Amino acid sequence: MKFSIRLLAFILTFSAVSAFAADKLPAAKAGTIGKATGKIAFIRNGDIWAMDATGQNQYKVCASGNADGRLSWSPDGKMIAFTRSGQVNYRSPDNLGGQHKLYDIFIAYLDSAYANNTQYWYRITSGLGSRDPEWAADGSKIVFWKDMNSNIVDAFAPQYQVMTIEPDGSSEVMLRKDWQSFYENFLTRPTMNANGDLAAVYFNKQNQLGLVVLSPSEYMADMDSLMATAERHKGMIAPAWSPDGKWIAYIDSDMTNSGLYIISADLKEKYIVAPPPVGTYMMTYPPSWSPDSKWMTFSTTDGSVWIVDITGNGLRRLTGPGPDKGPAWSK
To answer: What pLDDT does residue 266 have?
Structure first.
């Protein structure tokens, strides 16, 4: 019996080690990696904060109180797009009821923060279902995902679609034109590179499956082909394109392979960047890239913000443990 217990302990230990035995990106392929520079925004207690990439000079940008999800800097570094969340609760006359969260996208201004005014922000969506904005590389639009049923108080299920909108709140566009035909198959958590290629998570019957990539000419790809791709890349969630378009960073949701990874744009070449730091887990917010595509920032479930370079070196905690999450590197 003692032997069996020891053998089991060895197997479990070996499995835990081998789970992170995936290759790391070779230094020769990564190229020269300099110091981490620029600024990183993050959420602390529902407010938006920013700091240097060293973790120093922390200051509050926006005292919204309910920021929730992905943050994204405008290319000129003057604005941050973010989501605020709320909730609807209802009870029908026969005492049935339910609740679901509501979201809309806002923009915070850095010059207001510099003037010690953290109470100013601008709303760009109003449908109560828009979330997780990502600014386009040229600043012309913001990509996000939206629950088309969010404003229906007794909606049986969400109806997610990938959208774009101009930063002033005009010209909202749905990237798929056949959304009313699908009630169990959606694309969620979108990220877009400078060429308009879309990486997203295929969502099937209330379960996130995996990563898919579509060029602009493939936005209307049939759901069966998307499902097949997602099955081959199951568990890859919270994607983020690198600024140079070479890599997609993502979080693996499989408990045995949990960690921060990168995969090539053609989904053929995969490397682990970092397993969860000891004693915590990766939050499923999209990681965020430095402008030179050499560093990433991410958050963990103990309320910490970290940075690491693409080879898995230079890992260090910038904040926490505490209430911090959802970091985003300035562009």
So the answer is: 93
